[in-house]
TrEMBL record:
PANTHER family: MARR-FAMILY TRANSCRIPTIONAL REGULATOR (PTHR33164:SF57), TRANSCRIPTIONAL REGULATOR, MARR FAMILY (PTHR33164). It comes from Streptomyces cinerochromogenes. Pfam families: MarR. This is MarR family winged helix-turn-helix transcriptional regulator. It comes from the Bacteria. SMART domains: HTH_MARR. Residues 1-124 form the HTH marR-type domain. InterPro entries: ArsR-like_HTH (IPR011991), HTH_MarR-typ (IPR000835), MarR/SlyA-like (IPR039422), WH-like_DNA-bd_sf (IPR036388), WH_DNA-bd_sf (IPR036390). SUPFAM superfamilies: Winged helix' DNA-binding domain.
Amino acid sequence: MTIFARRARASAGRMHPELSLVSYTLLGHLEERGGCRATDLAAHYALDKSTVSRQVAALERAGLIERRLDPEDHRVQVLHLTEAGQEILAQVTRSRRAAFRERLAGWPEEDLVRFAAYLERYNAGQGDPDSA
C-alpha cells in the first residue's frame, strides 16, 4: 500500500508539476460536486481548515480554481474549477488511466478480474471512497 501511495503521489507530479496528489484529489472532488466551500473540503477529508486553505490558495494561484459567491447566500464563497482546472484534471486523469492500462496490459484476463474484484471489495469496506 505504501508503494501504491508513493506511485500515486509521484504520478500526479509528473503529469503536472504544480499538481500534488492532494491537489488532484481536491480538484476531483470539486468536479464531482460541482463546487463546494473550503470548509466542506476540510470536513469531507477530515483536514484542518488551515491545511485546506493553503491547498486552495495554491490552486487559486495556479489558476485552477476560483471562488464564486453562493447565489443563495452571498456571505458564502464556493470553490469551482476554472476552465484550466478542468483541462488539467482531465489531462491527468487520462494520463493516469493510460499508465494503469500500460501496467496491466500483460496481465491475464483472470488476474484482471480477480484484481478488480479485490479493489471493489477494498473500496466497499471503506464506506467513503475518498477516505484512506
